[in-house]
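Fill-in record for Purine nucleoside phosphorylase.
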Amino acid sequence: MPPPTHDHADDVSIEAFTTATNYLRARLPLELATPKLAIICGSGLGQLADTIENKVEFAYEDIPGFVSSTVQGHAGKLAFGLLGDKRTPTVCMVGRFHFYEGHTLKQVTLPIRIFKMLGVEILIVTNATGALNRDFKVGMVGVMTDHISLPGLAGNNPLFGPNVSAFGTRFPPMSDAYDYNLRVIAFKAADYLKFPRGTLKEAIYTFVGGPSFETRAEARYLRSIGGDLVGMSTVPEVIVARHCGIRVLGLSLVSNMVAIGKGKSADPSEPVNGLEEPLVNHEEVLQIGKERALDMQKLVRTIVDLISST
């Protein structure tokens, strides 16, 4: 029997979310039907879903209201299963939706509200990111403490439009977007795994629309306003999760160093200055994700076990 059709992916009515939730619940075994934890797997980090047991998967295109991911490194499926030694019921979003793909922010964040209706209480959101702050190096993990949303400040907020009061208030605060206790657990997990000190570092994440990477001047501006890391995702999902009352832990794998120097001057009256900073490309982002996949899997599994033990 084909799944029910849903022609209004941008519909924010409670009925739209209920349709998708009921579709999933009807096809899940009882032990997986009410996950308490959700994980969004960012670029190159989809292997996290391979660590769960008793897995049940759903392609995005089969779920009512979902759109499809078009980005290399994003598989496009929900994977339900039991994660870690504590066998925590978990749903993994293997591949996310992005604003730059042409989706609306309501489409991008629709899965978060479905997670809430399924019973999710904690969201772990991961991404691959560029480092603006030179205290970060490729391979480090930024533990998000705050964010700067350039699209949001310009009016592109996923909560724009009618408020769905069943999920939350019209004006939700974001000053506590990234849960302190979950951040403490992340550092405890790194210590437990004996990661070298400094592998994890707290960071402010800057959200930009993409899909072009930042110019040098833009990167310097983002650094000047307090950004440590920059990426093209995550913040819309976090805003909707907090609107729903879901606690959030954000983990950013540093995949590249963002070019922030002024570069060489072509003006013969100016001294030759600036370093030749390599251009970033998406293949580099995916490669770093592959290289650090095992460490990220261990880190997230350990975090989930520690959360389940508290």
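KEY FINDING: The first strand starts at residue 37 and ends at 41.
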